[in-house]
Amino acid sequence: MIQSTRSIRWRLLAAGALALAGALALSGMGLAVLFERHVERVAVADLQARALALAAMVEPGGADGPVLRAGPVGPLYEQPFSGRYWQITLGQQEYRSRSLWDYALPTSHAAPPPGETATLSLPGPRGAALLAVEQSLAVGRGATPVPLRIIVATERDQLNLARRGFLGDLLPYLALLGAALLVASWLQISVGLQPLAQVGARVAGLNSGARPRMGQDLPTEVIPLASEIDKLLDARDEQLARARHRAANLAHGFKTPLQALLGDAAQLRSREQDDIAASIETVATAMRRHVDRELARARIQSDRPTSGADPAPILEKLIGVLRRMPQGAGIDWQLNAPTGLRARIDADDLTEALGALLENAMRHTNEIVETTVRAEGDRIVIAIRDDGRGVPEADLKRLTQRGLSLDPSGQGQGIGLAVVSDIVDAAQGELRLQNARPGFLAELRFDALP
User: Which residue range or ranges hold the Histidine kinase domain (predicted)?
Assistant: First the structure.
């Protein structure tokens, strides 16, 4: 529910649905009013025609003056309280349709001028509301024509029934129209929000390394947002480069004094001041490990990788170098790495990480170092396994801690696996270290690139 309230799509759809409901409701009421007026105009026209037909039945001449020849005959006018009525007042004489029975239409209001008609609302039999047309004429010639007043009426309930029938037929069509417009609104919103999905896809591409920048080939409305994101990335890269340079400069600045301290410690040993020399060497060695690690971290380029690396040629090159070393000459290096697989990591960073792991395997193996590269779904897995003694289980979780060295020969500085961990983290990969029984297994997992 919270996600729906935060969704632009659902907000626009809800607003559109409310607007459509209001518009359709107003349309329905408007159409009902128009239909009612149209039905009333048709009814008035019919009543006017009937009033003229009644006027034609008045005989203007005769000894006793004008008389009504005969009233209109019809089942609705003969049936009591049928809803259709007429009433004629000719001078002092009054004639009514049989449908009025004993009821007389009120004539207390002023009659329209002779020759004109008026539309009225009158009370009818049994309290019914009537729509009536009154026609006023003067019959005869001379100075004293006889006034003729004709009222033809119909009950308004019949008009209301027609209006309700019209609304009953109209509402299903309005509902169908509303559903169609709602679907069209959903499609319109989806098309309108498509640029935002495109922006989201490009941000995901930035995160995965598929794109270096957002670019400008976007809809006009989202180009300013893309430009600001690109500026932010440019500023971030500049800050990272400056921080990397500062770290490298600081590490280089410490390296010479530390080397001088180690030289002083050697002189103290030559003077048989072993305790002081050992103390200085311990401190200087620890500080040198920090410096070496910061130098290694300053070289990492995978803060936001946009290129990929093929592990196979890198491994072949590194193994070729290690085979020429005295310690690696007697090792059986087994490599199973198909070419064409691309991992999402900078090639220099991958070289440094694999070099550290291969050197570590070379120092601890007995005879065999096996290296394999394989694809697992959308990941590239690089596995380096030796047949050495492995690592005590209690130390497995501490292997990537800086300064920790489990090399019994004392040649390791304790920063190799820590640097590898930093490189893998920067490339958004995964480092797995475990005992292989026998031996030790190190796995690097990176996202695969096409």
Answer: 249-450
Report d(CA 7, CA 348) in Å as an integer: 43
Q: Give 70-76's long-range contacts (Cβ < 8 A, gap of 24+).
A: 71/95, 71/97, 72/97
| pTM passes above 0.85 | no
132 and 121 Cβ atoms separated by less than 8 Å? yes
Residues 10 and 443: their CA atoms lie apart, in Å, by 45
Q: Which two tokens stand for residue 305?
A: 């990788």
- d(C-alpha 366, C-alpha 375), whole Å: 28
Nearest to 210 by CA among 308, 90, 107, 350: 308
* Residue 215 in domain: no
C-alpha–C-alpha distance, residues 448 and 213, integer Å: 20
CA pair distance 445, 430, nearest whole angstrom:
5
3-state SS, residue 92: coil
Answer yes or no: is pLDDT of 64 > 60: yes
For the cut 50, the answer to whether the pLDDT of residue 440 exceeds it is: yes
Evaluated on CA atoms 158, 159, 162, 163, the torsion sign reads: negative
If asked whether residues 405 and 318 sit together in one domain, one would say: yes
| Coil, strand or helix at 143 | coil
Number of domains in the chain: 3
In a domain, 106, yes or no: yes
Tokens in use for 251?
């590490």
CA distance linking residue 127 with residue 132, whole number of Å: 15
Percent of the chain exceeding pLDDT 70 equals 85
373 part of a folded domain: yes
> DSSP letter string over 170-186?
HHHHHHHHHHHHHHHHH
